[in-house]
Amino acid sequence: MTTSPGRPLWAEIDLDAIAHNVRLIVQRMAPASVMAVVKANAYGHGAVPVARAVLEAGAIQLAVACVDEGVQLRRAGIMAPIAVVAYAAPGEAEAIVANRLTPAVIDEATGRAFAAAAKRAGVRLQVHLEVDTGMARFGVRPEDVPGLVALIRSLPELELVGMYTHYATADTADKTFTRQQYQALVATTAAVGGPLTRHVANSATVLDTPDMKLDMARPGMAIYGYQPSGEVTHSLELHPSMQLKATVGRVHTLPAGETVSYGRTWTAPRDSRIALIPCGYADGIPRLASNRGAVLVRGQRAPIRGRVCMDQFMVDVTDIPGATAGDEAVIVGTQGSQAITWEEVGAQASTINYEIVCALAARVPRVYLRGGQVVETTTLLG
Ligand SMILES: *Cc1c(COP(=O)(O)O)cnc(C)c1O
Fold this sequence. Notes:
Elements: E1 9-14, H1 15-29, E2 33-37, H2 39-43, H3 47-56, E3 61-64, H4 67-75, E4 82-84, H5 93-98, E5 101-102, E6 104-105, H6 108-121, E7 125-130, H7 145-154, E8 158-164, H8 176-192, E9 197-201, H9 203-208, E10 216-217, H10 221-224, E11 242-247, E12 251-254, E13 259-260, E14 266-267, E15 272-277, E16 294-297, E17 300-305, E18 313-316, E19 328-335, E20 338-340, H11 342-348, H12 353-358, E21 366-370, E22 373-378
Parallel strand pairs: 1-21, 2-3, 2-10, 3-4, 4-5, 6-7, 7-8, 8-9
Antiparallel strand pairs: 1-11, 11-19, 12-15, 13-14, 15-18, 16-17, 16-19, 17-18, 19-20, 21-22
Helix pairs in contact: 1-3
The protein binds pyridoxal-5'-phosphate.
C-alpha cells in the first residue's frame, strides 16, 4: 500500500517512532527533564508535527537554532518554552520578545538589546547563557561568565533561568574532553549560584554518558531514531522515524554499450533495464551518491547508474524480475528484509547522517503516520 500524497516522491515520518524515542530518553534521563532539539525543520522531519509529538511524549521544552524557527512554532500554537540555542542578533530582540522565545545572551550587546526590547514590550524576558567550554563556537568563555551574569542580573527586564554548554567530542570513544567540558560548566554555574537549569546532554551524551546530564538533556538526533556516530556504543532501542520513498517512473531497456545520465559516467555492460527515480539532489539525495548508492525495489537493491541529476536519477533493475513503472522504490528505509539507512547515504557522500536528513528539501511532501495511518500530509503547497 502506498501513502504517496500525489508527487511520486515523499518522506514518511512515523510519529509513533518519535514518541517512542522520546519516552525512552525521558526515562533514561530522569530525574533530569528533556528539551527536544527541533532546529532545521526538526532535522528535516517537519518542525510543527514533530514539536507536537515530542511534547506529548514527555519533552517539556524545545530548542531551535534561529528566531524564525521559534516564530514558526509559536504561529502553530505551540506554547512550551522554546530556547534559541545559537546566535540571535540584537536586531532580532523584538521578535524574540514578541514570541516569548528564550535566547542566549553571549555579550553585553545582546544582553542590553534583549533587555531594551523587553522593556518596550513591558515584559520580563527569560534568557539562557551558553558557556563556551571548548567548542569555540558560540557562548561566553568561563572567565567572562561572572561579569556577564552580574550584568544580566542588574537588568530588571531579564531573568537568567538557564546555563548550558555544548560538547565537542561527546560522540567519540574518548570521553576525556567531554568530561573536562562538563566539569568546567559545573564549576562555572556553581560560582555564579542561583536557581539555574543546567543543560548539556546532546544525543551522544544521552546514549553514552548519561551521568553527564545535569538538570535537562538536550538531544536532537536520538529523538529521530538515529545514532549520532559509529563510535557511540550504548545504544537505546531507538526507532528510525523517517523513510524516503518514490514511485518508479519510466522503465526501459538500455542496449549494451549505451550510457546513462550527464557525463556518460556509466556504460551498460549488457542489455539493461533502467528505472527512473523521480528524486534528485535538489530533493536531498547527494550527487556524490552517483554510481554508489542504491534503492530498494521489490525487496532488492537496485544500484544507482550514472550521475544523480537535480530532479531525477536512474537505477538498474536488470536483476529484479517484474520491476515496472509504478513500483514503490525505497530510497531510505526498509522494504522486505533490506534496509538503506541515512548513515549509508551519508557515507556515500563522505558525510554524516545529520547532513543528509537536514538536506531533505521543502518540495518533498511529508506524510505523517500514527498507528500505521496517515494523520497529516504537508506539501510545498501547504
Ligand atoms: C544541534 C544541537 C544539539 C543537539 O545535538 P544532537 O547531536 O542532534 O543531539 C544540542 N545542543 C545544541 C547547542 C545544538 O546546536
